[in-house]
């Protein structure tokens, strides 16, 4: 079994993975993988930035109809593609809106695998420039032997440096970890 089919099997094993796989199959048939991936990235960003949207997805007291209506309005306002909007409606109908973020992440993994990419989750204290991201992607490609898509996250608490997670591998070159290691060594 090659790595991409192993990743696909891992994705399909979860509840969110089953929804993502069904959506991915529909998107591939419709030649809309890129559109759906972009829409789901917009949804993920909204989940991170909007407490109201996050609350809608996690609040069990919201009725099924109210959730479906809210999701339809949100999809229209965010100009999501029709497949993503319909999928959010299905999640609402099945009372699975809490899985929205996990579905988006699983879909991104499936799309990356189709492109022959692996995704690296990079955490830095400050935003990386385009040149830094490109150089990091090239270094990681040399290391893993495949194209690497960079998914950036900012976390000022790491102080400096980077953490890079590719699959289950974590490369932690953050100043915070170095300082913690030094503190442990000094304790003796």
What does this 3D model show about the protein?
- The chain has a four-stranded mixed β-sheet, sandwiched between helices.
- 64% of the residues lie in helices and 15% in strands.
- With 188 residues, the chain is an alpha+beta fold.
- The radius of gyration is 19 Å and the shape is globular.
- It has nine helices and four strands.
In short:
The chain is an alpha+beta fold and 188 residues long. It contains nine helices and four strands. 64% of the residues lie in helices and 15% in strands.
Annotation keywords:
alpha+beta, disordered N terminus, 9 helices, globular, four-stranded mixed β-sheet, 188 residues, single chain
List the helices and strands and how they pair.
Elements: H1 3-13, H2 15-29, H3 33-49, H4 51-58, H5 64-77, H6 82-93, H7 100-114, E1 117-124, H8 130-144, E2 147-154, E3 161-166, E4 169-174, H9 175-187
Parallel strand pairs: 1-2
Antiparallel strand pairs: 1-3, 3-4
What general form does the structure show? Answer: globular
- Helix- and strand-based class? alpha+beta
Strand order of the largest sheet: 2-1-3-4
Low-confidence stretches: 1-6
The share of residues in helices is: 55-70%
> If helices are DSSP runs of H or I spanning 4 or more residues, what is the number of helices?
9
Overall number of strands: 4
- How far apart are the termini? 46 Å
Main sheet overview: 4 strands, mixed
Strand % is 5-15%
Q: What is the H-and-E element order? A: HHHHHHHEHEEEH
What's the average pLDDT? 89
| C-alpha-based Rg, rounded | 19 Å
